[in-house]
């Protein structure tokens, strides 16, 4: 099946698995066992052993539903989630990033905004500043009733784009534009800011609405 897979699929799998790591950080052992009975975690097995080669996009979409639902559930269980996210971000290995591209490549492995062809997140730069702009909030639907989404329904999802599987333009950094989402923030984005603030200790990580602005100290 590996002949059907490209780098973009492996990146998505790493992003998906990271969200379930956050779940484990938030929940006690007992709470995790309870959640696993309600909605099993995603596997850590090699992607080639798991994925349906005839439905790569649909399979990954269903896994996103699983981790988003589990994370929303875990967030509801934890009163000090911001502290947990910040400290976990601080514990992650990091490097000295020589460019915004290197910086975003590192960030991109620990945040998840649907599939790339959803274009839910737009990344822009203005000098040393990096902007993570929420175009479409794909997390909101999981928040109120986290386990109400049926992942099997996403198996029918498909991508109509003409891109190959080596690269996707949604992971490219664009020049700063005038358009920015001014929607009111939510707890999910406050937690994302906390995670990135811990991860990027040498940077200033600001939250404006549902957007994050990162600049050097």
Task: Provide structural commentary.
It is built from seven helices and five strands, in the order αααααββαβαββ. The longest helix is centred in the first third of the chain and has 22 residues. Helices cover 41% and strands 12% of the residues. The chain is of the alpha+beta class. The chain has a five-stranded mixed beta sheet with strand order 3-1-2-5-4, with helices on one face. Helix 4 runs parallel beside helix 7.
> Secondary-structure element sequence?
HHHHHEEHEHEE
Major sheet characteristics? 5 strands, mixed
Regions with little confidence, pLDDT below 50 for 5+ residues: none
Q: Beta-sheet strand percentage?
A: 5-15%
Total number of β-strand segments? 5
CA-CA gap between termini = 46 Å
Secondary-structure-derived class: alpha+beta
Rg, alpha carbons? 17 Å
Please give the count of helices. 7
Let me know the average pLDDT. Answer: 92
Helix fraction by DSSP (H/I, runs of at least 4): 40-55%
Q: How would you concisely characterize the structure shown here?
A:
It contains seven helices and five strands; from the N terminus they run αααααββαβαββ. With 217 residues, it is of the alpha+beta class.
């Amino acid at each position: 099946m590996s002949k059907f897979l490209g780098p973009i699929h492996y990146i998505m799998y790493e992003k998906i698995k990271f969200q379930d790591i956050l779940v484990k950080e938030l929940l006690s052992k007992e709470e995790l066992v309870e959640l696993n009975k309600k909605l099993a975690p995603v596997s850590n097995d090699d992607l080639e052993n798991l994925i349906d080669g005839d439905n790569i996009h649909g399979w990954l979409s269903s896994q996103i539903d699983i981790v988003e639902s589990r994370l929303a559930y875990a967030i509801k269980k934890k009163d000090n989630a911001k502290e947990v996210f910040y400290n976990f971000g601080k514990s992650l290995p990091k490097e000295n990033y020589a460019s915004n591209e290197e910086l975003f490549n590192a960030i991109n492995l620990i945040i998840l905004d649907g599939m790339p062809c959803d274009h839910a997140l737009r990344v822009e730069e203005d000098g040393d500043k990096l902007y993570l702009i929420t175009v479409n909030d794909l997390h909101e639907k999981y928040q109120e009733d986290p386990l109400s989404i049926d992942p099997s329904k996403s198996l029918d999802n498909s991508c109509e784009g003409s891109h190959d599987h080596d690269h996707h333009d949604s992971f490219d950094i664009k020049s700063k534009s005038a358009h920015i989402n001014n929607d009111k923030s939510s707890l999910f984005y406050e937690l994302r800011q906390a995670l990135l603030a811990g991860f990027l200790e040498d940077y200033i990580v600001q939250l404006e609405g549902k957007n994050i602005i990162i600049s050097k100290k």
